[in-house]
Design a protein that fits this description.
This protein is mainly alpha-helical. The protein is 40% helix and 7% strand. Strand 2 (89-91), helix 4 and strand 3 (120-122) form a beta-alpha-beta unit. The longest helix is centred in the first third of the chain and has 17 residues, at 34-50.
Length: 132
């Protein structure tokens, strides 16, 4: 069963997921409830399907590749480059695998995609199956 996400729900999810900033990989990041995760997946999927598969993007744009589940590296990247919507991002895929925090990575990125669909872009890498 999925629950409908409101803007304040997304803001709250971002708030507690970003508490890990500067705390290192041993910090236990709080994750959304299962129903919220399902809603995040559904809502972000709708956004991806509504957008043109050929992206025509304008500079400035920060291009990022191969996060591989390294949540704290992702947070550091945002600290240096600016958290959305301060900066525009294009992620090239490979969000999961190898690192211990793949779930944290993909949830954070999908929440940002929902909140800022016109300046936060994600491509599918070889670690994400085509059905996603």
């Amino acid at each position: 069963m999925t629950t409908e996400l409101e803007t304040q729900d997304l803001d709250e999810i971002l708030e507690y997921m970003l508490e890990a900033k500067g705390k290192g990989p041993s910090y236990k990041t709080r994750l959304p409830l299962e129903g919220q995760v399902k809603s995040i997946c559904q809502r972000s999927g709708e956004i991806f399907m509504s957008q043109d598969p050929l992206l025509e993007l304008e500079a400035p744009m920060t291009v990022v590749g191969d996060i591989h589940g390294q949540y704290h590296d992702l947070l550091r990247l945002f600290e240096f480059g600016g958290f959305p919507p301060e900066a525009n991002y294009l992620f090239l895929g490979d969000y999961v695998d190898r690192g211990k925090q793949s779930l944290e990575v993909i949830i954070l990125l999908l929440v940002y995609k929902i909140k800022f669909p016109e300046n936060f872009f994600m491509l599918r890498g070889n670690h994400e199956c085509a059905a996603i």
